[in-house]
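Example record

One chain of 157 residues, shown exactly as stored in the release files.
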Amino acid sequence: MSKKTTKILIAVAVCLFVGFLSGFATQSSVSDWYADLNKPSFNPPNWIFGPVWTVLYVLMGIAAGIVWSKGFHHKWVKTAMYHFLFQLIFNAAWSLVFFGMRSPTYALLIIIILLTLIILTMKWFRVVNKTAALLLVPYLLWVSFASILNYSIWQLN
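Predicted structure tokens for this chain:
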């Protein structure tokens, strides 16, 4: 197995693990607190979130693995990977705050920061590898949609 493949697999595993941990916070509130919230008409069914996030975490991991494989000693790779790590932390924090703390208000602040960090991560990934940056486009689109959804839930409740 090549070093690039190994790094991609490790990065995918890390992203999926973060998603798995975030799922615990989500599961604690989906069937009671979240079910009782007023939601906008465009709110997707609950079953869609798991498959979508799984695909997104895999794409994120592939992108990170591609960038990481360019050599962590390079300052642009380091910068890109630090941005990736920060956005991944905010990704997990959103679930903990929205579902764990049951706070759409603070979650809205976190998701705005997350969107900014995703855009910055894409910028730095593009410096290292354009394909890696493009792999994050679905993630950016989904989090943009999630931001609108979070805002709407905050407004309605």
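Notes: The two ends are 51 Å apart (CA to CA).
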